[in-house]
Amino acid sequence: MIRLALRTLRLRKGGFLATFVAVFFGALIVSACGGLMETGIRTETPVQRLAAAPVVVGGQQNLKLPEDDPATLDPEDKHKFENATLPERVRLDASLADQLRAVPGVTRVVGEVSFPAQIGTASVLGHAWESAVLAPYTVKGEAPKPGEVVVDAGLGIGVGATLPVAAHGVVGQYRVSGIAEAPQAMRDAAVFFAASDAERLSGHPGRFDTIGVFGGDVAAVTKVVGDAGIVTTGVARGVLEFPEAGKSGEDLIVLAAVSGGLSVLVMVFVVAGTLTLSTQQRQRELALLRAIGTTPRQLRRMVLGEALVVGVLAVGGAVALGPVLGQWLFGRLAAHHVVPDVLRFAQGWLPATVAAGASLLAVVAASFVAGRRAAKVRPTEALAEAAVERRWLTPIRLITAILCFAGGTALAIVTVAVMTGPVAASTAGPAVMLWAFGLAAISPGVTKVTAALLRWPVHAITGVTGRVALLNTRVGAVRTAGAVTPIMLAVGIATANIYLQTTQEAVSNQAYTEDLRADAVVGSPVGLDPSVRERVRAVPGVAGASEYVTSTVFVEKPFDGNQDKDGWPALGVSELTGNAVEVPAKLGRQVGETLSLRLGDGTPVDVRVAAVVAQRPGFERLVLPAGLLAPHTTAGLAPQLLVRAAPGVDAATLTARLREATAGLPVFVGDRDALIAAHAKGNEIGAWVNYLLVGMIIAYTVISVVNTLVMATAKRRREFGLQRLGGFTRGQVLRMAGVEGGLIAAIAVLLGTAVAAGAIVPFCLVVTGSVLPSGPLAIYLVVLTIAVVLSLVAILVPAWAATRGRAADATSAGA
Questions:
Q1: Does 206 share its domain with 64?
Q2: What backbone phi and psi angles, to 5 degrees, belong to 148?
Q3: How would DSSP label each residue in 426-476?
Q4: What is the DSSP code string of 173-185?
Q5: Residue 635 and residue 742 in one domain
Q6: Which of 94, 315, 366, 517 is least surrounded, with the fewest CB atoms within 10 Å of its CB?
Q7: Tens digit of pLDDT for each residue in 655-675?
Q8: Nearest by Cα to 615 from 640, 587, 643
């Protein structure tokens, strides 16, 4: 039967090409997502500034959080922990460098600090000159003394020039004593200071970002470092140089896992639909094989053999091109600053293997489903089965639908009853797929019912051609469902994900705007010196000014069951002082209680609850003194100062006075609209990622729709010929096909809308109190238009080709 399967490939090119396309694009997307996941797992970041040091020591960026309250556990029980990533750079005490110098075999130990600086409008990173050996940089000129700098050769500045250099909130005049040339391309231009200047400007005196070690045994170095930090060699050193790559890697893993998993599920249904339709169109051929003595097992083997041959060819091409698509997707993510541009895309054999295995498994499962009915029928009923579609509802379909609908209902209940704020999307999102798969499992029956509901408007608008189209749709429900299902998936996934995203954005922007009391902002890329606040407060027309610092903190004691590995968002303001903290009511604390926190850089601190506030659900945060929070951020200073105008002072007057008062300082001044726009832009980055990956999956379903409709329509040449012989004109046949395409689009849009509503409505009830999402109606209209145009083009073009020539020739060719 395998030999027969190979021979049928030559005679059934259309159906097998359709299967090839479905498997190829599904495996391609899964392989690309696998490459993104592997990139996130490896987090390979080529080392640049630290390349010459064979061993680099950095701070421990992981924090262990207990999963259960330690106070309730038996001391003998093994505690379970989850790893959280600290959002701020964890620095090392300078005394560790002295300990490392005492390690036998170590020839040199160099501490390194890195801090943002500006020379004119150019953004650079400042370092101590002693750390130039870690690259190593070479200098033309002399090493810097206090008050001098060595600048990067790429800045085009000559020796002897005097420059205003802004760093750590202040501007100083420095003489250029030398020009540094890097041994390789660097992401960031460098400016080197004398050790005393660098320690002052780093904002973290007595601390190193990293320590480079030359010579010595790695094991001995690791023993000395202990729990104070981590020891890296090789490519792992890059993560210490660019710590943002570590968190981006985690985000990339989640992103790829969700997208890849969604792609696999969509692929299973698309491939199953394509193979089922292809097998159904060959029902007469398969029936004849049964009638002449072919056993059910042989028939299943033939269908499986055909599918596997096509599947292997499709998977082979997909895994070869998977890294190309993965690299392109990674490039788009890097270009939009979703991942750092220093992160290296890496895709080995494992994603290809997973993609191949998942795709071939989908092919095997789909071929089993497709060949099962034809193999089970008795030979005496075979030809009758080929003539008319019979029972489509199987126990497997029914059980699948029941389980999916039950799961979707359960998630909807959880979303409404348990979730709060934008986090409700974590349960609303998966509900889309459950509703979609439930409908897909019983799509022939749902298609018949929906077509019956559309009978009267179709009759009223289209006349006799519409009647025939309705009859074709209802009689050929399995065939029609094969086209409806992928469109329904595309409409449901697109509508739900886009409106979930737009609603999240709208709620976030609304919350930020309503909570914002500032009329202007003073900010700086190198941090704001505390003296700027006093200068701003003295400006006429200023009612108040507060530093604005954001970070993440972790509650250690008392145990917080609401806390996950992402910790609590923290806001630092000037209105609070000392160790006071304002907490949300959700935390369950009382005024006067003491909380033990871990700040963003891992520093432990005890704070006293000064206020308990009922905050907006989903946007809860801890509010701490800016003076406490800012020194434990990577920058070490507040990046913004929010300013409120006095009554009667307009925004234009306020910003003009602020610019005048801060002239000569390394700051910028913006109005309230600038703050809101900056917040909205941050939301757009996350939205862009969602749109990109959802768009990729929808593009796959679009290809599958065209694939399925073209295959289904092209096989109806004989049917069209008989209709023309019966009195239909070619134009009437094409109009009938157009009505069928419109019916397919209408049914798919209705079902897709129902699928999307199953996720959108519970989510919106939680976050906005309305059943309707936020976002322009044009989004839905565009999705609807694409579905209609797609259906009409995919069915009319092959119908036009199938009705060319004489009707008699078409009937004989199709026999």
A1: yes
A2: -125, 160
A3: HHHHHHHHHHHHHHHHTHHHHHHHHHHHTHHHHHHHHTHHHHHHHHHHHHT
A4: EEEEEEEEE-SS-
A5: no
A6: 517
A7: 999 999 998 888 999 988 888
A8: 587
Tell me the residue type at 742.
G
Strands 230-233 and 92-93: unpaired
pLDDT in tens, 610-637: 999 988 887 889 999 999 999 999 989 9
Structure-token pair, residue 302: 């033939």
**Amino acid, res. 785:** T
Res. 1: pLDDT tops 70:
no
Residue 263 lies in a domain: yes
Residue 111 DSSP SS3: strand
Say if residue 707 is in the same domain as residue 580: no
Phi, psi of 14 (to 5 degrees): -60, -50
Nearest to 270 by CA among 365, 401, 404: 365
Average pLDDT on 366-385 reads 64
Task: Report which DSSP code applies to 117.
Answer: E
Nearest to 225 by CA among 342, 310, 103, 368: 103
Same domain, 650 and 741: no
| In a shared domain, residues 37 and 114 | no
The alpha carbon dihedral of 422, 423, 424, 428 has a sign of: positive
Cβ atoms 568, 555 nearer than 8 A: yes
Q: Domain for residue 394, yes or no? A: no
Domain that holds residue 186: 55-233
Cα distance between residue 575 and residue 572, in whole Å = 9
Helix axes 477-515, 777-802, angle to 10 degrees: 160
Query: Cα–Cα distance between 395 and 360 in angstroms, integer?
Result: 24
Same domain (yes/no): 73, 195: yes
Q: Which of 388, 415, 444 is the last residue of a domain?
A: 388
Amino acid at position 393, single letter = L
Task: Look at residues 95, 200, 183 and name the one whose alpha carbon lies nearest to residue 139.
Answer: 183
- Encoded tokens for 87: 């959002």
Lowest model confidence (mean pLDDT) among 114-128, 481-495, 759-773:
481-495
> C-alpha 551: how far from its chain's center?
22
Whole-model pTM: value is 0.80
Q: How many domains does the chain have?
A: 4
Contact present, 134 and 103 (Cβ < 8 Å): no
DSSP tag of 216: S
The terminus-to-terminus CA distance of the chain in angstroms comes to: 24
Highest mean pLDDT among 215-219, 268-272, 789-793: 215-219
- The answer to whether 134 and 212 have CB atoms below 8 angstroms apart is yes
d(CA 620, CA 622): 7
Maximum CA extent, the chain: 100
Last residue of a domain, one of 666, 697, 726: 666
Shared domain for 310 and 334, answered yes or no, is yes
What does the alpha-carbon distance between residue 354 and residue 221 come to, in Å, rounded to a whole number?
A: 39
- Bridge partners of residue 384, in order along the sequence: none
Do 261 and 70 touch, CB atoms closer than 8 A? no
Closest of 85, 59, 88, 90 to residue 250, by C-alpha: 85
Count of CA atoms in the C-beta half-sphere (13 A) of 518: 22
460: left (phi over 0), alpha (psi -120 to 50) or beta: alpha
Q: Whole-angstrom Cα distance, residue 275 to residue 368?
A: 10
**In 630-671, which residue ranges form alpha helices assigned H by DSSP?**
651-661
Q: Are 335 and 237 in contact (CB under 8 A)?
A: no
The answer to the question of residue 723 being in a domain is: yes
Q: Which DSSP category does 89 fall into? A: P
H-run or E-run covering 166 = strand 162-167
**393 in a structural domain:** no
Beta bridge partners of 56: 212, 232
d(CA 149, CA 158): 11
- The answer on 433 and 558 residing in a single domain is no
Q: How many CB atoms lie within 10 A of CB 72?
A: 8
In this structure, what token pair is assigned to residue 621?
């945060």
